[in-house]
Design goal:
The chain has 435 residues and is of the alpha/beta class. It has a domain of 95 residues. The protein is 42% helix and 16% strand. The protein has 16 helices and eleven strands. The chain has an eleven-stranded mixed sheet with strand order 5-4-1-2-3-8-7-6-9-11-10, sandwiched between helices. Helix 3 links the parallel strand 4 and strand 5. Helix 11 runs parallel beside helix 13. The C terminus is likely disordered.
Length: 435
């Protein structure tokens, strides 16, 4: 029977660690590295049934993809019931998920100290900033996570330092508390092997398409329990009317909860351009120097030349703001460069970007262009076939062959060639969040 066993759970100061054992057929999806997460508050007094939530949130989708059961000594009863709802939503979303059962020796219902705090997963992008604007009266703790788009690898130390500095500055300027979480949540899983098996079923990566709503929220459980966070917000990437197979949606995130905490998928009723409008109103009334950070290539500012930088700059213009005042080097000359790059297919774009450019086009049709260059670009965009922007070539043949080989190899063979397989990771990178 396919199964995953979670054992040897420990909390030492601010660090959570546990080991995982899997049945032979699932060993290839889990590395020998223990699951480890470091918080910036002590978690030793958090019940084991809550401490286990972060690792369950990463492992359960893997189990569900293989019809496997998960075994644990103790679990928070509220979260156990929430997992059943998340499982139903993800299985309805993805045909390849089979589901499974969580078995616990003990189910607990702890009574955390009363708290009326709120928290917000935060990067400083359009989505999380608009969620801050919506909930600023609550003074939410802004929570940043290292482990997905910024990995625990030493090579990403500079990116993490830049993010911490930027978020800390934002928090200081807005009189907010911060929380920083560092986890090996994906490196303890064999993400290349997950891609080898399931990339053919999803539009993005494993984590973006399946795991990140439950995974990121669940990672915050010990922190939320220790800090008394009752409401935890995660900003929506998409909006009502977009039906994409994506790991963070209302029918996933709104189900996630544990003792003392409810999770919320925020601003789903607003398009990305409407979120920029909300930010623009806030800038004009309260925060004229607000800076956004959305770049695909940098964490210490915006390059101004990647697709997301251009897209955000155009959206800011449509919201009535000057992009250069809010972190984006942009001028009328950039409209021609942007058009040429879109026409040439310089960027790998998917359905996400198609919907976002359609959103921009809808707003542009209602807006008088401010300059001839802007008029020319919006006229081109009005006639453009946005389906042509979507990349259809797929990954290189070598990566497809590696995936097929890894997928079909016996465990003994896979374990022998694993070092060679990991060299392909650079071409199998995770899909970035737009938060």
């Amino acid at each position: 029977m396919s199964s995953i066993l979670i054992d040897q759970l420990t909390a030492d100061g601010e660090t959570l660690e546990c080991s995982v054992r899997a049945s032979t057929d699932l060993e290839r999806f889990i590395t020998d590295e223990p699951f480890r997460t470091r918080y910036d508050v002590p978690i030793e007094d958090v019940p084991d049934g809550v401490l286990v939530i972060p690792v369950l949130a990463q492992l359960c989708p893997v189990a569900w993809a293989n019809g496997a059961d998960v075994y644990v000594d103790e679990v928070d009863g509220t979260f156990a019931r929430a997992l059943e709802e998340v499982e139903a939503s993800l299985c309805e979303m993805h045909d390849f998920l089979e589901g499974g059962t969580l078995y616990a020796r003990r189910t607990i219902d702890p009574d955390p100290d009363p708290g009326d705090e709120s928290g917000l997963l935060f990067t400083g992008g359009v989505d999380s900033t608009s969620s801050y604007v919506r909930h600023r009266e609550e003074s939410p703790t802004v929570i940043s996570i290292r482990g997905w788009t910024i990995t625990p690898d030493a090579a990403d130390d500079g990116k993490w330092d830049a993010l911490r500095t930027r978020v800390s500055g934002f928090a200081e300027d807005h009189d907010l508390e911060t929380a920083f979480v560092e986890s090996n949540m994906l490196s303890f899983l064999d993400h290349p092997m997950l891609l080898a098996h399931y990339k053919r079923y999803v539009d993005g990566g494993w984590y973006s398409s399946v795991g990140h709503g439950l995974g990121l929220l669940g990672l915050c459980a010990p922190l939320a329990y220790a800090r008394g966070i009752e409401d935890l917000y995660v900003a929506a990437t998409h909006w009502d009317g977009i039906d994409l197979e994506w790991g963070s949606r209302p029918d996933v995130d709104e189900c996630v909860r544990w003792a003392g905490t409810e999770c919320h998928h925020d601003a789903y009723e607003l398009t990305r351009q409407e979120r920029l409008d909300l930010i623009a109103d806030y800038v004009r009334s309260e925060d004229p120097t607000l800076q956004l950070q959305t770049c695909n290539d940098r964490m210490d500012g915006n390059c101004g030349q990647c697709e997301k930088c251009y897209r955000t700059a155009v959206g800011l213009r449509l919201a009535g703001l000057e992009p250069s005042d809010h972190g984006y080097p942009f001028s009328d000359a950039d409209y021609d460069d942007l058009r040429r790059s879109l026409e040439r297919g310089d960027w790998v774009l998917g359905q996400d970007e198609r919907h976002m450019w359609a959103d921009i086009r809808d707003r542009a049709r209602e807006t008088d262009p401010a300059t001839p260059a802007e008029r020319s670009f919006f006229e081109w965009l009005d006639d453009a076939d946005l389906d042509d922007l979507i990349s259809t070539s797929g990954p290189p043949l070598t990566h497809r062959l590696l995936r097929a080989g890894a997928r079909n190899a016996p465990n003994s063979v896979y374990n022998t060639v694993y070092p060679a397989w990991t060299t392909a990771k650079a071409g199998l990178r995770l899909v970035r969040s737009d938060r």
